[in-house]
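Minutes, project check-in
Item: structure for the 113-residue chain
Input as provided by the requester:
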Amino acid sequence: MMRIELKVCINCQKCKRDLLQVVTKLTGIDQVVVHTDKGTISVFGTVDPACLANKIRKSGKVADIISVGPPKPPEPKPAATDPPKPLPPYCNNCQIIAGAAIFSTEIIHCSIL
C-alpha cells in the first residue's frame, strides 16, 4: 500500500464531489482524504499514480503529483481547533450560467453593401 498526494484546485462543494466521484471509480483505492484548506488530495492504495493523475485531468481538473511513498503514521490530533471554513456550493468555474433568448417580431434586413 502506498500514499499518493496530489495538488488539485478545490474551490467549492461541486469541485470536491466531482473529484471524489472520479477518484473512487478506480480500482485499488483503500482510502481517500481531501484537504480543502491545502488544496490537496491523499489517496491510499495500490493504484498507479500516473493513471490517477490522468483520470483527474480528463475530468477537467489540473492535478499535480506532490509525493508518492509509504503512508505516514497517523499524527496526534490537536485538541479544540476551529472547524474548517465551509466551501461554497458553486464556484465561478462550476457555475452554470443561464442564458435568455430574445425573439422579436421585427423584420431585420442585412445589407452588406
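Outcome recorded: The chain is about 20% helix and 25% strand.
No further action items on this chain.
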